[in-house]
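Hey, I'm writing a tutorial for new members on how sequence and structure tokens pair up, and I'd like a real worked example in the thread rather than a made-up one. If someone can provide the structure for the chain below, I'll link this post from the tutorial.
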Amino acid sequence: MFQMLKTRILYQTSNIIKRMMSSAESDVLFESVNNAGIIVLNRPKALNSLNTSMVTKMLPQLIEWEKTKSLVIIKGAGEKAFCAGGDVKAAIDPVEGPKFFHTEYNVNYLIGKYSIPYVAFMNGITMGGGLGVSVHGRYRVATEKTLIAMPETKIGLFPDVGGSYFLPRLQVNLGLYLGLTGDRLKGKDVVKAGIATHFVSSSRLYELEKLLSRCTSDSEVQSLLSKFNEPPAEFTLADNIKHINYCFAASTIEEIIERLEKVQNEWSVKTLKTLQGMCPGSLKITLRALQRGAQLELAQCLRMEYRLATRATLNHDFPEGVRALLIDKDNNPQWKPKTLAEVDDNYVEGYFKKLPADKELQFFDSKL
């Protein structure tokens, strides 16, 4: 009896240790199911936020699957999030930050030019880096739990991971509005905005995944997604689209603010208050990045963003924003420069200058 109990305890203990080891090692899981490669972002307690370890594993796996699979599906573990962004507490380090961004942007670049269908299940919170590993893919599935945002201007950064590419390409200056204010969109609004391509109820994702894994071509994937897709609803921003289009067509932050002051409705008052809470330097850097990104290819946008991100780790505002909002949580960042008026053109352009040749972003497939 005692021996049996001892054996059972040993068995249970070894299983617990195995699970602990596996969860410690497996911040991202790769599964091969039928014709599909499936990526599971596996840090549910951290809302599946991306770190260097995860993107370093994802890049070679994606390269391999592009040659051997019919499609790739990416999803998040747990019920709350697809991916809440990058691990910015680590990214503020002037050594580790650029390493993380370098690999992360390579993953974004590969997804953007992926030759086989790439299907992202954006179920739950999808922000910042989470959009980087979804929005550049061919198919992006939103659910009633989807909540998207690019909230970087609040922490002294800018919308990166290709934000300078996809945001200015959204209709009616919506991308400039989302990128500067960090406003959130939910559910069917994410499809209306052009960030997701399909809307499927979260209760049907399991069935959809099983059927997708059997697809052998892009046309089969497309046809299946169309069958599961639900019709769009009225856009919750519909009443203010004309104001968004007008206000965020302005060429400077100061002029955007002037235009918002003229609108004088509940939305414009709220938007003005939001902008006042953002990092002044980030607002001006973001606007310039989105204006330039509108004319660039994804690879060029990522190169530009890498310069901005590297400089952000070396300057005051990004570490200060992360300290105030995520580490000390006093919500009282001391920005330098303190006001929009103090953010001059030299300050903004300093971020955009090329880095030394050996510090620039290199893509994994670039010919040296």
